[in-house]
Amino acid sequence: MKFSINKNTLLKKLQLLSKAIPSRSTLPIISSALFTTKGNQLSMRATDLEISINIKCDITGGGEGCIAIPLGKLLEITSVMPESDIDFNVSDIGKMNISCNSGRYTIMGQSSEEFPSEQAIENSQTLQISSKELKDIINNTSYAASKDDLKPVLQGVLFQIQNDGIVSVATDGHRLVKLEKKKLHSLDYTGDVVVPIKFLSLLTTQLTGDGEVSMLIGDNHIQVQLKDVTITTRIIKDPYPDYEGVIPKNNTKTLVINKDSFTEAIKRVSIFSNKSSRQVALELSENSLTITTEDPENITTGKETLDCEYDGEPMTIGYNALYLKEVLQHQDSDEIKIMLNSPLNAGLFLPMDQNNNDNKTTLLMPIRLND
Question: What pTM was computed for the model?
């Protein structure tokens, strides 16, 4: 098995492949990528057993062969090679000889038979959606998904796909985003599916332009094919919690405030908050909002007052500053409306200028203020 490929072409492909390699694993073979040559085409596949990335590219002087190569080492040497073609030659015992203008190097490969087989998409249906809309869904929801391995179902985004649009939901138990998109055309698949956040984050880096994306949704897997890259993931099969039940219906106190000035004030005041709780207090009165924090351990305090419109009883409510800042940064309007009930109930964050076909609701749980 031997072939030649341009250094920059290979480097871009290896950088993408590395996103599927787990940082640690009990199965050493999956720290490698499977290289398969057939004629003048090279296919490279990497997987962490949940997600797999398959990339095809053109090579010169290729024969037929298949071997698993440690990806970390290959990426490291490729990134520091001079710009030129790189020649690869694999011996009968699986040693990969790499040569270029600067020198010669060897890496020991492993048998392709040990590498996990490709994930099969069974009983698949196609969901056709525009790249722009899919990217917008991912950007608006993925930040709110959980990073806790003990809550696997919350490490995904719920897609509820109907004939006239898509409802997407993400939550980590502290905040929740529900994004409704109506009048999305060319929807063939209908049903509910929970898609892992790692797959969506990877997909959003590959979505360019305004074209259409075809997602193959099977019983256990989802696959997206983009030019020379195919990304496949396992679907999260656990039932998603009843999110509608936690969205409050009786928040009648309304706060309207400029998003940017609120966000910047939170950034400044939170510098002086306790590093573990990140607690800030919002003191609301008729036309002013006072943001305060204190950290008795380090003897620091912060306080700022902003103009706002508020139509409820005076109230003080506490939030985690990091969560609050992220929620504010993901609102797409200059002014935002915050619907409140009491210091112990979740607040609803709504952009002031939503269009009729996009309806976004964000929920943020308060934290109990220290007396």
Answer: 0.88
